[in-house]
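pipeline stage [seq->struct] | target=Ubiquinone/menaquinone biosynthesis C-methyltransferase UbiE | organism=Nocardia macrotermitis | residues=108
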Amino acid sequence: MNESSFTPALGRFAPVRCYDTVIALPRERLWRAVEAMCVAPRAGEVIVDVGCGTGSFAVLLGRAEPGAEIVGVDPDVDVLAVAKCKAAAAGAGVRWSSGPGTRRIRRR
């Protein structure tokens, strides 16, 4: 992936620090909760959130089932920094990986 093919969160027009506020506008919490119920993580599973952004969904999954291995992948290191802080604050054990999501994820 080169610089010209990568589009950061919110495009090139808004800073990463605004992402969570902007994405929360269309009832994000509701549809993420429904999505998490559909995934229904179980202990021992490995679940990869490709394009995890600031990690809201990965953190939700990690809190729903601490025995599952949740991996958040995103090419944007700035949003991953936000995701790591969010996971630490929530006490969610999520593993983070920077990249386009095409690499194989290895189990711990």
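stage status: PASS
auto-comment: DSSP finds four helices and three strands in the chain. The chain has a mean pLDDT of 83.
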